[in-house]
């Protein structure tokens, strides 16, 4: 199924997505109880949602500060070239870049960066600045750090 094609979700599918986004480690038997289906029917639904590309994976959320990253920043990059290979190569080689979005407007990319310190952020942004003009915004706090997706 093409990624952009809308997948028809019913109320049970929506409930499955809600529960799995809250806890992706929920066992099928427990998930089945929560959505009032048999375990086999629930497993089939989860498999169908995965096969259709609605569920794209499972992950663990890690607190950046607990693993040494005390600074979060967003870097806007005005990239002057249509050749994105140097950009892709640099962000691939920079593990502190945890998100990169190609956007409209004066800037071409918005990049989320984690750094160990302000000096470390300076090093990372210095590397990104070799590609074009940058503007950096340091995050004070994140009142909405992540939100579950509710199907439209």
UniProtKB/TrEMBL annotation:
It holds the Pfam family AsnC_trans_reg. Gene3D superfamilies: 3.30.70.920, Winged helix-like DNA-binding domain superfamily/Winged helix DNA-binding domain. Keywords: DNA-binding, Transcription, Transcription regulation. SUPFAM superfamilies: Dimeric alpha+beta barrel (SSF54909), Winged helix' DNA-binding domain (SSF46785). The keyword Transcription regulation applies. CDD domains: HTH_ARSR. This is Lrp/AsnC family transcriptional regulator.
């Amino acid at each position: 199924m093409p990624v952009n094609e809308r997948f028809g979700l019913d109320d049970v599918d929506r409930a499955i997505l809600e529960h799995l986004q809250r806890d992706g480690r929920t066992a099928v038997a427990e998930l089945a109880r929560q959505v009032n289906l048999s375990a086999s029917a629930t497993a089939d639904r989860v498999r169908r949602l995965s096969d259709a590309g609605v569920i794209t994976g499972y992950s663990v959320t890690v607190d950046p500060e607990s693993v040494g990253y005390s600074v979060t920043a967003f870097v806007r990059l005005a990239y002057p070239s249509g050749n994105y290979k140097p950009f892709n190569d640099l962000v691939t080689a920079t593990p502190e870049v945890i998100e990169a979005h190609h956007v409209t407007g004066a800037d071409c990319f918005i990049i989320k960066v984690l750094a160990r310190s302000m000096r470390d952020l300076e090093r990372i942004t210095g590397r990104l600045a070799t590609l074009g003009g940058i503007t950096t915004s340091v995050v004070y706090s994140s009142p909405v750090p992540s939100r579950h997706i509710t199907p439209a």
